[in-house]
Amino acid sequence: MNQPKSNSLSKSFRRVLLGGALVAGVAGYAIGNSGALNIAPSYAEAVKIEAPVTFSFADVVEAVSPAVVSVRVESNIQPANHQGEFRFDRRGGEDGFGMEEFFKRFQEDDFFGRDGRKNGKKQRHRKPHRYGQSQGSGFFVSEDGYVVTNHHVIESGEKFTVIMSDGKEFEANLVGADARTDLAVLKVEADQEFTYVDFGENRPRIGEWVVAVGNPFGLGGTVTAGIVSAHGRAIGTNQYDDFIQIDAAVNKGNSGGPAFNLEGEVIGINTAIFSPSGGNVGIAFAIPASLASEVVDDLISNGNVVRGWLGVQIQPVTKDISDALGLEFTDGAIVASPQKGSPADDAGVRSGDIITAVNGKKIKGPRELARTIGDYNPDTTVKLEIWRNGESQDIDVKLGKLDTADSAIPTPNSKPKNLSQFGLEVEGLGDGSGVLVREVEPGSGADERGIKAGDVIVSINGESISTPADLERVVNEVIELGRKAALFQIKRDDNTTFIPVPVEKG
Fold first, then answer.
1. Residues with Cβ < 8 Å from 299, sequence gap 6 or more?
2. How many angstroms separate the Cα of 233 from the Cα of each of 242, 354, 437?
3. Which tens digit of pLDDT belongs to each residue from 222-261?
4. 182 catalytic residue (yes or no)
5. Which member of 182, 242, 320, 455 is catalytic?
6. Catalytic position from the list 70, 137, 229, 255
7. What is the pLDDT of residues 385-429, one digit of tens each?
8. Is 151 a catalytic residue?
9. What is the CATH number of the domain that holds 454?
10. Which member of 75, 134, 152, 455 is catalytic?
11. Would residue 255 show up in a list of annotated catalytic residues for this protein?
12. Which domain holds residue 30?
């Protein structure tokens, strides 16, 4: 009689182990008075892993975020046309989702329609829209309300609103702006102390972490991270270009926002991106803290930035120019021409001089010369180290006040052929001031180099040219000296530039 009961128990036990109702198996069992099987199930615990301590940006972001703000800029714009279409200010500000893109989306969705219709009905009496908005980013640099942003964010603005990370809004006044460095300072007047951040004193190393906080697309309070990719980037805005390149995601609306190191110091101000599509591709440019801090101090103290002025048109000393002059260096900036009545002109600086140092500081190129001179106050006397006629000499110059930026005229990049193949037709001006280019053969070496009809050849390798015979004679001398190029000084309109022309022995 016991055998069948044992078999019944064995079958029940197997059903518990193999069935889907109890996934953890059976830890024990008991038979009650009724003979039924009582089972006490045991369940497995959920998976738990002791996570290792990992690197995080959270502490930095939590500390600095209250100091980062959104900047809303309002400005008068052109009135709408008679059909009621909206026309928004397309200046250099960060439009993002603020207004322009928002209404653009509405038009594309036919909410207003392409001709100013709403839900398909003509709006005949709608008042013209005369106000546009743009948005960017900024950050507090003092507890009493000074805010730093980009010049292009606030440019042409008439009303400025600072929006805090907690949503509070404050009106702000423009203290000062500097277009050359693309920096501006606003001031919030409020009966409270603001959380602020400091500029870092140390230059960040390539490869160091960087955290960008800002207002992309009007979203506000967005954080991205990356590394420092490079220093000293020039992107063609002006001679004060000296950007830090970072690979953190930066988009429209991030302009004016800070880039932080892991100590919560501002190492740069996000200003521009490289983007064929308009979106982030991982190449962003920030104004270095070392430059920004000096400009911001000037703007807060004076409302503008006062710079020294030398008064020269300058260009780089390229390899071709160096070869043409028989130099062993390519540092410095060659003077295309001093401006009449400028400090450089008054001091005796000449066209063709190469400025290699200022007060003992070596100059690598035009951008460094412009920044170095700009760092001095007007009426300061500086000592220029000049390379002229194969030797170095010093010239003292009393700087003026910069009203317009010095310009460097770029050298064409194309490679001309032998002098006999330039395809130039020239004639003397008759007053000894140079040789006029009458015609340039299309596709010739001169044409490829960028020489145009109407240009005046003033000198070659520093030797004045008065007639076509002078031109031929001097070039032949260059060839006999074994130089790889001849340096043409070309005058076009009111500008002068040097064009190195490679030559070959015939």
1. 175, 176, 177, 178, 183, 184, 185, 305
2. 5, 24, 37
3. 999 999 999 988 776 666 778 999 999 998 889 999 999 9
4. yes
5. 182
6. 255
7. 999 988 999 999 999 988 643 333 333 333 322 344 356 777 777
8. no
9. 2.30.42.10
10. 152
11. yes
12. 2-41
